[in-house]
Amino acid sequence: MKDATRTVREDIDEATGAITTPIYQTTAYHYPEGEKYRYSREANPTVLELTKKIVELENAEMGVAFSSGMGAISTSALALLKPGNSVLVHRDMFGRSYRFFTDYLKNWGIDVDASNPGSNNIIEKAKSKRYDVIFVENITNPLLRVVDISELSKVAKERGSILIVDATFSTPINQKPLELGADIVVHSASKFLAGHNDVIAGLAAGYGKYLNVIDQMRRTLGTSLDPHAAYLTLRGIKTLKIRMDVINRNAEQIAEFLEGHPKVIKVYYPGLKSHVDYEIARKVLKGFGGVLSFEVNGGQENALKVMKSLKLIIPAQTLGGVNSVISHPATMSHRTLSLEERKIVGITDSLLRLSVGIEDVNDLIEDLDRALGTLY
């Protein structure tokens, strides 16, 4: 089946014939008939249907659902790493993920190395020594650097490293990291997968030998997904393909508009020929995604002025929904990074991150143009 069919299809409930997965809002199950589930922190029928969906979309052996994207990341890392192990990440990633690896895991006795931005830097760092785990975002947050997962996976296999890819920005529509050689793919399902800014959820998929270990850690830590949140995520995924088709197209047009705007200094979007990773993006992505970042003339004051002057696009610290939202990374998603860390990554005070939705693209461009027009 193609992705458009996979996203919509659900198994029919054998007991009732329901064509939509029911919400099994129960803590436990009658024994011995309910032995498969026992307790909803461990297993729940609605949640398991969602894990089946991510397995189908990512062409994986096994999937696991979590209470959040950070739950997926932290649980996977804690399951696969122990004191004395080593992990490679990159500096230009979601601030909370970066803090988890460089602060928490380092304090837990894990040797954590952070590569400078850029696919070549990450690959060269991966070649320099054997890491137990390599964790990367396939499209980085917020400067949209694109990692060549196919090349990185070759190095990981040669070195015996487990490669985990956060594919939140791409979704399975634009890239399937497992097909490029990754071992595990994780998603903040709160974003494009659920797609409506109304649920917090995380997902992981990959080889069973790793996901079984991760699932046991999830049951122990309690980072389990609520059945109602699983239902909302399943419902959102049904329109994932058509949403991403529109979002990809809208984002490309907006990136091109912003690149030609006199009040914009620079645009970061992998679909632009001016992007440093354009050729890599063409190689490893089927679509360039719905997130772009841009720097405006002036500093933080002007960036915040643009954000507050928008009438249609919503200032908010999220992304991936049907509504377009905008944020200021330096004071929002990446506020936990020090000034020095932000400089290394390239996050300036004038940088804004835009997550493009499914609105009419002309309305979005008009809104941006009007807001940028408030700058002198």
Automatic annotation (TrEMBL):
Cellular component aspect of the GO annotation: cytoplasm
Keywords in alphabetical order: Lyase, Pyridoxal phosphate, Transferase
Domain of life per record: Archaea
Any Gene Ontology biological process: methionine biosynthetic process
Top EC group: transferase
A GO molecular-function descriptor: cystathionine gamma-synthase activity
CC cofactor: pyridoxal 5'-phosphate
InterPro entries xrefs: Cys/Met-Metab_PyrdxlP-dep_enz
EC number in record: 2.5.1.48
Protein name in the entry: Cystathionine gamma-synthase
Organism: Saccharolobus shibatae
